[in-house]
Design goal:
By secondary structure, this protein is α+β, with helices and mostly antiparallel strands. It is built from 4 helices and 4 strands, in the order ααβαββαβ. It folds into 2 domains: 44 residues; 92 residues, Alpha-Beta Plaits (2-Layer Sandwich). The protein is 51% helix and 34% strand. The protein has a 4-stranded antiparallel sheet with strand order 2-3-1-4. Helix 1 packs antiparallel against helix 2. 9% of the residues are buried.
């Protein structure tokens, strides 16, 4: 909340300056400045942390797996995601077969994003034929 107090005090200061100078150009410049900072401030408040656990088919070797994960990390950046971390959990035997597969690669993606972009990315991820399952968890 410290950021909101600073922003509020700046707004009050600039409103006083506008009233004293009565300048239209100054008014529009300050209005633009605050719209930009307010959007940035609102963006920072809505940022949430997420984790996606992805189950991939077993057919990847180490280099292919790294390039696949790197491509999806780049895709995440297109959705204005930050603080991306990737953890490979390795190949494991599945408890039951999924699409006639008995083993799979587990990948964990941690990131921070605006909530509206997460569902879009998850839907995009599930369209990949190499993805057997993808589960999204919201971290607190």
């Amino acid at each position: 909340m410290n950021g909101s107090k600073r922003l509020t005090s700046k707004i009050i200061f600039f409103i006083v300056v506008i009233i004293k100078t009565n300048s239209t150009i100054l008014y529009y410049t300050i209005l633009y400045y605050f719209n930009y900072n307010l959007k940035k401030f609102q963006f920072m408040q809505v940022l949430r942390k997420y984790e996606i656990m992805i189950l991939l088919t077993e057919e990847f070797n180490d280099n292919e797996l790294k390039s696949w994960v790197f491509n999806y990390a780049k895709t995440l950046r297109k959705f204005n995601v930050c603080d991306i971390s990737v953890i490979s959990r390795g190949k494991h035997k599945l408890s039951y077969s999924i699409l006639n597969k008995s083993r799979g690669n587990y990948i964990q993606l941690n990131f921070a994003s605006i909530p509206k972009y997460v569902k879009v990315f998850l839907d995009y991820l599930k369209t990949d034929s190499k993805v057997l399952r993808a589960v999204l968890l919201k971290k607190q």
